[in-house]
């Protein structure tokens, strides 16, 4: 891949999804249809600029009438959820990381009244999905945890949006679980690492 070009948008396609590098708000407007997304699943911790709250209008515009909005957060950031005005808070899932002796809150919001596709859970244990290569980075979300969340809030054939995809752990599990997905990342180094994550997991990529 040529990183020296002056193209505004670069990325890759897989069997089930597309991953773009560039300006997140512009990418959402250009590549995500209104009312098309069944689940927005992302990581508030990797979001720098814009923040989740700054793009709420764009996320709400593309969310289906009955859809979920789920994201990893930090204990010290939980009070910031009052900044979300259009999505309704439902509950908090606690993801317990026994190796690092800490927990990560996973905050669940909704638009309308979407259904659950597996048993409602309030506690998850951080772990790795079988036969999956992960990055040894704290902000790389464990793949089994992602899989459990995807199974709870979506089903095969649904469209999942990750606006702050980071190193690609959520899109990777969408691919493995056969969810259609679209992901964005504005940090070039994280995007390059996400490419490596997909290649390490033997996912065929078509670059553009």
Number of strands: 10
Number of helices: 5
Looking at how many chains there are and whether they match, the oligomeric state comes to single chain
CATH topology, by name, is Rossmann fold
Beta-strand fraction estimate: 25-35%
The radius of gyration computed from the alpha-carbon positions, rounded to a whole number of angstroms, is 16 Å
Overall 3D form: globular
End-to-end Cα distance, whole Å, is 9 Å
Q: What do we call the CATH homologous superfamily?
A: Vaccinia Virus protein VP39
Question: What features would you highlight for this structure?
Answer:
208 residues, Rossmann fold, disordered N terminus
Concise summary:
The chain is of the alpha/beta class. It has helices at residues 24-31, 56-62, 143-153, 169-176, 188-200; strands at 10-13, 17-21, 37-43, 63-72, 88-97, 102-111, 123-125, 159-162, 180-185, 206-207. It is built from five helices and ten strands, in the order ββαβαββββαβαβαβ.
Describe the model.
The chain is an alpha/beta fold and 208 residues long. The chain has a single domain, classed as Rossmann fold (3-Layer(aba) Sandwich). The protein is 23% helix and 29% strand. It is built from five helices and ten strands; from the N terminus they run E-E-H-E-H-E-E-E-E-H-E-H-E-H-E. It has helices at residues 24-31, 56-62, 143-153, 169-176, 188-200, and strands at 10-13, 17-21, 37-43, 63-72, 88-97, 102-111, 123-125, 159-162, 180-185, 206-207. It has a ten-stranded mixed β-sheet, with helices on both faces. Strand 1 and strand 2 (17-21) form a beta hairpin. Helix 3 (143-153) crosses helix 4 (169-176). The longest helix has 13 residues, at 188-200. The radius of gyration is 16 Å and the shape is globular. The termini are close together. Mean pLDDT is 92; it is low at 1-5.
